[in-house]
Design brief:
single chain, 180 residues, alpha+beta, five-stranded antiparallel beta sheet, three-stranded antiparallel beta sheet, 10 strands, elongated
Length: 180
């Protein structure tokens, strides 16, 4: 029975861009857990090839959708860069990786205000459906210098408090260049 469970787990996680350890970490979390986190401790780590010319504050999108009797609205949580470092390319026998830019981002003041507004709305007792979304926008609308290639890889990790470690959300996802 254990072998079947492990085999099914392997099959499901091998088709996913979300690491198995991440799924296990969040498997027993409830939506309320997110609202109990200190927003000042939330950090996002983004790693991407140095050649991409990536602007994380414009490309990383965090938002919540709130749906109630008044309709559906989107609340955005903008980020700001607090640290950027460059990791040199590695060309070894078992490890061959390009130079990477590693960004550490935190919630911008506007995001903290919006998160507090969302918490207050949620606590009001009114029936609302709330959904949290995160994404990366690689369109050239806001960054005409974007240089994607077939070798472009992206990793995104999340840290929910100063005491936590970064939890990998996306690990070495190969970005497809669909710009003609």
């Amino acid at each position: 029975m254990k072998i079947i469970f492990l085999l099914l787990t392997f099959i499901f996680t091998s088709c996913s861009s979300i690491p198995y350890a991440t799924m296990m970490h969040f498997s027993d979390n409830k939506p309320e857990d997110f609202f109990n986190v200190d927003p000042n401790g939330i950090l996002v780590k983004v790693s991407i090839n140095s050649t991409v010319n990536f602007e994380p504050t414009k490309s990383i999108k965090l938002s919540a959708s709130v749906e109630d009797e008044d309709g559906k609205r989107i609340i955005r949580f903008p980020l700001e860069v607090i640290n950027k470092k460059n990791q040199a390319a590695v060309n070894e026998f078992f490890n061959n990786s390009p130079a990477m830019d590693i960004y550490i981002l935190k919630l911008a003041p506007k995001a903290l205000t919006n998160l507090e507004r969302l918490k207050n709305e949620r606590a009001s007792g009114d029936k609302k459906r709330v959904g949290l979304t995160a994404g990366v926008d690689f369109s050239t609308d806001h960054n005409s210098d974007l240089k994607l290639s077939d070798d472009t890889v992206l990793s995104v990790a999340l840290k929910l408090s100063e005491q936590d470690v970064f939890i990998t959300l996306i690990d070495n996802w190969q970005v497809k260049n669909n710009v003609n």
